[in-house]
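Long-time lurker, finally posting.

We've been working with Ankyrin repeat-containing domain protein (Immersiella caudata) and I want a structural starting point before designing mutants. I don't trust myself to interpret raw outputs, so I'm hoping someone here can both generate the structure tokens and explain anything notable. Sequence follows.
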Amino acid sequence: MGHVAFTSFLLGNGAMIETKSHDPPAPLALGSTNGHKPVVQLLIDAGADVEARDEHGLTPLMYAALNGHTKCVTLFLSQSGVDPNLTDTLGRTPLMNAAETGRDDIVEAVLAHKKT
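Top reply, 14 upvotes:
Generated this for you. Predicted structure of Ankyrin repeat-containing domain protein:
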């Protein structure tokens, strides 16, 4: 069973889409960290909070940017209400994270989004 099918199975059987604690991380943060765009899309469609923050102030967009997952970054940027200017507890934005890790494609995606 693939990630999407398994996630659908879990959601269909009452799995919580958000977590109260950060251990384990919220499903959307986990999908973003690992670059599973179809799972991320499924979770967004199911109502996951695209601006949810962990104990370090990181959002799913920040996780995707930190881990170099361009497809997830562009997916988040296409969502209403996603703010690419939010900062984590250290004052870093997704743009800063992408620049620090040498992800020019993500830097370009964030900058293009800011122009719209």
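Before you design anything, note these points.
The two ends are 39 Å apart (CA to CA).
DSSP finds seven helices and no strands in the chain.
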